[in-house]
Specification:
19% helix; alpha/beta
């Protein structure tokens, strides 16, 4: 797995975008990502749709590679860590999580994160809330227009359509505007929203090999 990076400056802070659907905040040594949707494949299997669990394993392998690359002190998950409560995929995620007890685990709750006290303990969360403010940045799952300051968000699984003479290609992206950094969905088992993107944004599209601005 190849990790491509691109440094950007937000509020005079350095953030490193990656082609592996996450961003690293240098000053805080924080690996930031959104929309893992752990348990989605198990939820589909429970409802009679046969899906192999290698999808989640691939997501966790990418996350392990990012941990090895950046050596973060903390995770900041900007919502939708889970997809449908507790299930067998969550057990597998917790086994994976226990490999990294030294890394703090902060969850900003998303619309899918229905987490009981027992499940919160099982997930080994250090902090869970609807919103977190660190320095000049507000971490929140879904962008709030009336909230002042700079927001780092997820939720809509942003994507861009690239048109060519052969076919149209849909790719995930980061979107950066004057007051928002919108993260792509970390899980590859998600759709892409190519229509509800923030206006007046820079888009950083990525592939397995590179990141480029459009």
């Amino acid at each position: 797995m190849f990790i491509a990076t691109k440094n950007i400056s937000i509020q005079n802070e350095t953030f490193i975008l990656t082609n592996q659907r996450a961003v690293f905040w240098e000053k805080e040594k924080a690996l930031i990502l959104s929309d893992l949707h752990i348990g989605k494949t198990a939820h589909f299997r429970k409802n009679g749709i046969a899906l192999a669990n290698h999808i989640m394993k691939s997501d966790l392998e990418r996350l392990s590679a990012l941990i090895e690359y950046f050596e973060p002190n903390k995770f900041i998950i900007v919502g939708d860590l889970l997809h449908a409560g507790d299930n067998s995929d969550v057990d597998e995620f917790c086994t994976w999580r226990n490999q990294y007890p030294e890394i703090e685990f902060h969850l900003i709750e998303g619309n899918h994160d229905r987490i009981s006290k027992a499940l919160e303990k099982k997930l080994c969360l250090h902090h869970k809330s609807a919103m977190v403010e660190i320095n000049e940045f507000t971490f929140i799952h879904e962008y709030e227009k009336k909230r002042p300051g700079f927001q780092i968000t997820g939720h809509i699984h942003p994507g861009i359509v690239l048109n060519s003479s052969v076919k149209n290609i849909r790719l995930p992206c980061f979107a950066i505007s004057e007051n928002q950094l919108l993260l792509p969905a970390f899980s590859e088992f998600t759709g892409l929203d190519t229509k509800n993107l923030p206006k007046k944004s820079k888009f950083f599209v990525f592939t397995d090999a590179e990141i480029y601005e459009i």
